[in-house]
Amino acid sequence: MITKTFYKFIYHKKKLFVLSMIVITILSSCSRSDDDYLNYALRAAGTNRSQLENVLEHYKNDPEKMAATRFLIENMPGHESYQSEEINKYYDIAREVLMSDLKPVEQRDSLLHVSDNQFRGMEYRTVSDLKTIKADYLIHSIDQAFTQWKTRPWTRHLTFDEFCEWILPYKVVEYQELDYWRDTLQAAFQVYVDRMIKDDDQYGTVFYTVDAVRNGILNRVKPTGMYNRSGYPLLRADLLLKQTYGRCEDYVNLAVMTYRSLGLPTVIDETPFWGRYRAGHSWYVILNDRGEELRSEWDVGSVPGTAFFQDKRIPKVYRKTYAINRDRAFYKIHSKYKYPFNVCCKDVTAQYFRTSDIEITLFDRVTLIEDWAYIATFTGIGRDWSIVDYGTVKRGKATFRNMGRNVLYIALGFDGNTLVPVSEPFILHIDGSLQFISNDWRNLRSVNVRRKYFQSNNVVRMRQRLIGGAIQCSNSPNFEDAVTLFTVDTLLLPDKVKLEAQRPYRYWRYLSPDGSYGSIAELAFFNRDSTILLGKAISSDKDFINAERAFDGDWLTNFETSNENGSWVGMDMGRPVSVNYVRIVPRGDDNDIHPGDLYELKYWDGILAWVSRGEQVAQDNTLTFDSIPNGALIWLSNKTRGWDERPFMVDEYGNVEWW
């Protein structure tokens, strides 16, 4: 079933995105003329109408700037800002924090505390830009954008329509402070443009100018990526220059604001959720001199134009636009459920990779009260299915456009009370074929699992470093007479490996194979009764703190040295002891089955909900659950620790396929 947390999330997001009815009316009419959009926007501005009319009057004799002004005003109903008095108080506090001696992580935590305790709910107290923007600010912003467009050598290839989206807008992201950000950022980073060598090939090109400015940002701001929850985003230009911590989104915002302040054509693309991850991601795109769109993988730390996430599955890619998406606006006014889709974006998924238009036959037992259905992908943790798009419903079938392949989906619909599944979960395979997941109730099976999440390339590489590693014992601290009791020859180790030493020894170690840098997450020695044996951590590099990481009980810390060969870590027991078992945990992501943790296994019942097959406290590094229908979609949760969880299927040979 769709979880209660999911509904709570949607309820609050609705409050954030719902616009006034007059503004929605403006947005939703696909048949109106440009004059209609302009007139409605002016009426919606209320007492601020004269400010917008002053801008129109100012450019009445300049057709090109008049067209740009109309574009901005006609689409302004889709844009909002924080209420100025409250956000300025928050930004003043933020400035003090950023100017303090606190470390970046302490700055983040401090502003998170301030956000939660002094400004809670500020995201719901917003106002339309139509009602607050001033003529002087808008005129200044338009003039600056045109100056960049007409005078910079790297903007000559832009059409007027491209200029309107890639450079012109008076703001880059929603809730950005209208604070003459172009002036602030151009003043800070023009120097890096001036330092460029004025050669006859690279100078004046978008790519190389972006790279010069990008390196300037890295040099001046020294960003530190921190991906845990933080406080309200800092969307005032002077604060962005001082923000030494942030998520990808924060530094993407800084990059795009800075690039546009210098006339470099840039936009922000994003995916609401990865195809096999619980969160989404945003990045920036530049439009180079040849009209090619070059994407960064990450934030300002990424060079645009490199291979783009070749290992990621992506259901949807959206581009943040200034222009209102009239189709989405139509959905906003006419739908009953009103999911908080951004109305200022466009679907660019098909520009990234092959996509599919799919038609899904809906359950006939569910009656929907609107002509839209929703397509969702699995995210886990708090909510299972998360919406990535909507589609139209006709004669019992839902059509979804430009869907990313190699992703698990489900169709949802609104029955008047809540969102309900209206299809079985299905996989859109990489060849464009659809596979609906149906349970074979006549054939039940046992399922053995060793993980709750798929193995990334890095996890597998770290795991493989164990092959050839050895458990040795000695009565010499230098292991001169070391006895090898076990050599790792498989990645499917039991939780405790049995050892058979002929007599007690004082010194015990894990000797890593050549080329592995000693890499190991956890090492533990046990006696005959499986009681853990404790001593003093020792290692080849004499670093006590490093050695302790192999015995700290935390599978996300690890022992590793700078020496490719000959590294080891072990324990001085203080006296000769008998060791009967050893635990060897490879460096990884702590998503293996963790002895002592509580797990719950569920499977999709094929209709509406997840069915629990019970909870188990892991006694080993493998769990077994019985009476699972063949072909079922399975979800294993660790209720003790961790975040990463993915559904999977098990084939007839017991092989796990992660989705």
State the low-pLDDT regions, or none: 1-22
- Average per-residue pLDDT, rounded, comes to 93
Shape, please?
globular
**Content-based structural category:** alpha+beta
Fraction in beta strands: 25-35%
Largest sheet: 8 strands, antiparallel
Percent helix range: 25-40%
Tally of strands:
33
Count of helical stretches: 16
Radius of gyration: 29 Å
Task: Kindly report how far apart the N and C termini lie.
Answer: 18 Å
- Taken together, the total number of domains comes to 4
Report on this structure.
This protein has 659 residues and is an alpha+beta fold. The chain folds into four domains: 4-320, no CATH class; 338-436, no CATH class; 443-454 and 592-658, Immunoglobulin-like (Sandwich), CATH 2.60.40; 457-585. Helices cover 27% and strands 26% of the residues. Strands 10, 11, 12, 13, 14, 15, 16 and 17 form an eight-stranded antiparallel β-sheet that branches. Strands 7-6-5-8-9 form a five-stranded antiparallel β-sheet, with helices on one face. Strand 32 and strand 33 (656-658) form a beta hairpin. The longest helix has 17 residues, at 135-151. The two termini are 18 Å apart.
